[in-house]
Amino acid sequence: MNERTVSRTYGADDPGHPTVPAAVRRWKLWLLTVCGIYPTIVVLGLATDPVLGDLYLPVRLAVLVPAAAAAMVWQINPRLQRHFGAWLAR
């Protein structure tokens, strides 16, 4: 599968969608995701602690996880993939 085929699969030919290289190693995507999700969860946890601090952990996570996932999908991962794209494709 070449880069053009993968790009069409992900809808990257549309403006605003990054191109995903065809030969990305899964461990590299995993590492990039971990490096993005950890600080996101820490910052969201600290920011919402005054409001959600008295709630049980599962309830707090029910708020934090969707917010962290949305941040990763629409903001953090595209920027990380754009910045580290050459490394991901190696």
Care to describe what's here?
The chain is mainly α. The protein has one domain. It is built from 4 helices and no strands. The protein has helices at residues 3-10, 26-52, 57-83, 85-89. Helix 2 (26-52) crosses helix 3 (57-83). It is elongated. The model is unreliable at 4-11 (pLDDT under 50).
What number is the mean pLDDT? Answer: 84
DSSP, total strands: 0
Oligomeric status? single chain
Percent range of helical residues: over 70%
Q: What is the terminal-to-terminal distance?
A: 16 Å
Strand percent estimate:
under 5%
Count of the domains: 1
Q: If helices are DSSP runs of H or I spanning 4 or more residues, what is the number of helices?
A: 4
Structural class label: mainly alpha
Shape: elongated
Q: Give the radius of gyration.
A: 16 Å
What characterizes the major β-sheet? none
Low-confidence stretches: 4-11
H/E series:
HHHH
Keywords: Membrane, Transmembrane, Transmembrane helix
Transmembrane segments: 29-49, 55-74
